[in-house]
Amino acid sequence: MSESIDAYYWINSDWAYFGGPRLKAMGKRYGLTINHRPIDLTTVYARTGGIKLPYRSAERKNYRLIEMRRFSEILGMPINLEPKYFCVTGHLPSFFVIAAEQSGHEVADLTQAIMTAIWVEDRNAEDDDTLIDVGNSLGLDGPAILAKAKDPRTELIYMKYTNEAIARGVWGAPFYFFRGEPFWGQDRLEMLDRTIAKALGQ
Q1: Which domains does the chain have, with CATH numbers?
Q2: Which string of DSSP letters, residue by residue, matches 2-71?
Q3: 0.90 cut: is pTM over it?
């Protein structure tokens, strides 16, 4: 069985959106499984002292936009700084990703497509039709996955991931773990890469 990276992220996260392609490439480069773990960031913040974006100071909000512009340029990834459907709960699209993974699908591309719908295409990821369309566009059975996403058992998995993340010391998103070592934020992916390369002797 291959080694893995545990990736805990909020499906609405701009930073998870920026990190997605590099995380996927890292998994392929080192032959690692990426364990996708969508979490409820509101619960994480409530239990770890985080402040949701609408309640942060203007200074923090403004600097966030500066960083978003920088990473968009550095990574060559487009982003809408003020997406129309940002700050919805993220529950249903998270359930959709979990349902797809539980159905045996690899979900890196699905997760990235949902985040792209939010951050680039101004689409509502909480909308049934949007999720079905995104799933179908990747060759998945969108309606079947949506039905499984709405099964109460899927929400239990979502909360399991959220509680598990907090127990492991997660207080923001995205958070990555390799051999138990935590890395917070997509701007730490280079540190994660170096750690993996050293651990694997590459």
Answers
A1: 4-199 (3.40.30.10)
A2: --EEEEEE-TT-HHHHHHHHHHHHHHHHHTPEEEEEE--HHHHHHHHT---GGGS-HHHHHHHHHHHHHH
A3: yes
